[in-house]
Task: inverse folding
């Protein structure tokens, strides 16, 4: 059964809304286990935030790291950014609204509880997009808890969502909340560029690129285009790489090239089809070298 992923309401503080598309509908993930790898603990002044973006014909979850502001705990901070701010990458968006109240807590069993006011859901979504929005929250909350060391990233993390302190609220009128939810690995983008982030300015010389691919069996083609003074882009460098197959590394890939001063766009694609010559999934990132 195919469900049209339509955003028929306004998008709060989001990036560009994708045109309507058709993708398989998704059932809410409430199972106690997930094969979506967690982020690792790191000493940083940034928190991970997930957004929704297009990946080929599907709509998937992508991650950015954002600066920590204020004195709220990292989970609340990350969720507040997800609901109230714009993603750095203009290809991403969020259907959430900035709620009047938002609080988070963690139990001793790695269960994160998020309690928010119902005004966070003031967008009209179909079932498929509503499920992606709920998973956007689950991914963001669990990632912020893991990177900040608030939970044991070696154990399963679940998220319980309450609305005005109550269970059984229907998120966007589509997804029933209140039960423990785990990450749904099927909703993560097949390939995404982690570093550099969108519109980042980098020092000249060797530039290292990092990313993640969900299918380590597929080779990855990367292309770098350089932008001229008139805004036209031309091919500059290209090559291939592979994602790591080491358990626990989550299909990460990395490569480095030396770039002169200028503005560039990086394009990374999974390869498949006959002779592995077809670009199946692609992510792009604009950056500059000073």
Result:
């Amino acid at each position: 059964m195919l469900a049209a992923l339509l955003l028929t309401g306004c998008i709060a503080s989001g990036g560009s809304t994708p045109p309507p598309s058709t993708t398989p509908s998704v059932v809410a993930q409430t199972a106690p286990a997930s094969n979506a790898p967690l982020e690792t603990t790191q000493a940083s002044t940034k928190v991970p935030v997930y957004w929704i973006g297009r990946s080929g014909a599907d709509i998937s979850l992508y991650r950015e790291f954002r600066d920590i502001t204020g004195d709220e705990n990292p989970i609340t901070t990350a969720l507040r950014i997800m609901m109230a701010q714009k993603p750095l990458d203009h290809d991403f968006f969020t259907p959430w609204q900035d709620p009047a109240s938002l609080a988070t807590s963690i139990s001793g069993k790695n269960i994160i509880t998020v309690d928010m006011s119902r005004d966070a859901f003031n967008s009209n979504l179909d079932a498929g997009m509503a499920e992606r929005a709920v998973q956007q929250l689950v991914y963001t909350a669990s990632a912020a808890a893991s990177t900040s060391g608030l939970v044991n990233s070696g154990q399963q993390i679940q998220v319980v969502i309450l609305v005005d302190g109550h269970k059984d609220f229907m998120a966007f009128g589509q997804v029933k909340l209140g039960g423990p939810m785990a990450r749904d690995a099927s909703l993560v983008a097949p390939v995404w560029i982690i570093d550099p982030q969108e519109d980042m300015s980098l020092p000249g010389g060797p530039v290292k690129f990092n990313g993640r691919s969900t299918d380590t069996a597929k080779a990855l083609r990367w292309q770098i285009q350089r932008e001229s003074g008139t805004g036209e882009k031309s091919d500059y460098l290209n090559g291939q790489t592979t994602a790591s197959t080491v358990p626990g590394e989550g299909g990460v890939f990395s490569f480095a090239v030396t770039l002169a001063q200028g503005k560039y766009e990086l394009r990374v694609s999974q390869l498949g089809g006959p002779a592995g010559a077809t670009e199946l999934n692609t992510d792009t990132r604009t950056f500059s070298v000073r």
The radius of gyration is 19 Å.
